[in-house]
Design brief:
Length: 134
């Protein structure tokens, strides 16, 4: 069953770490509209990691952040950039300042992945809107 109304929120943003704040606001707006306040913190952290990874590892000028609800109990957050470079999960060592982003994404989500596009890629992750279903 799909959610009929307001099932997608999208915004184009500069590909920069500072865009994470606006992406978090987009997630809060979407989750609020859907009555999903119980998982909004996970969504905010998730979009922060996806935007941060795009800003750090691509040379794109813009990204497109989308929050959608493909099913009543699934929320998908995706970030599209113009880089063909695929994300590579790393194992951060003690004292490393970075390298944990995809581990955080993996821990928070029901599933995540990357879609290769003709002009870049889409990194997406899905949260269950009812945490008791995970």
């Amino acid at each position: 069953m799909r959610v009929a109304a307001w099932d997608e929120f999208t915004r184009s943003l500069p590909c920069a770490a500072r865009s994470a704040a606006e992406a978090r606001a987009l997630v809060r707006a979407a989750f609020g509209a859907w009555g999903l306040e119980g998982v909004v913190d996970d969504g905010v952290l998730l979009v922060s990691e996806l935007v941060g990874n795009a800003a750090e590892h691509t040379r794109s000028r813009q990204i497109r952040v989308t929050v959608s609800r493909p099913h009543v109990d699934v929320v998908r957050i995706s970030v599209v950039d113009r880089s063909g470079a695929m994300p590579v999960p790393r194992r951060a060592r003690e004292g490393d300042q970075g390298g944990r982003g995809l581990a955080v994404v993996d821990a928070l989500t029901a599933r995540w992945g990357v879609d290769s596009l003709a002009w870049g890629k889409r990194v997406w992750a899905e949260l269950r809107s009812d945490r008791s279903l995970v």
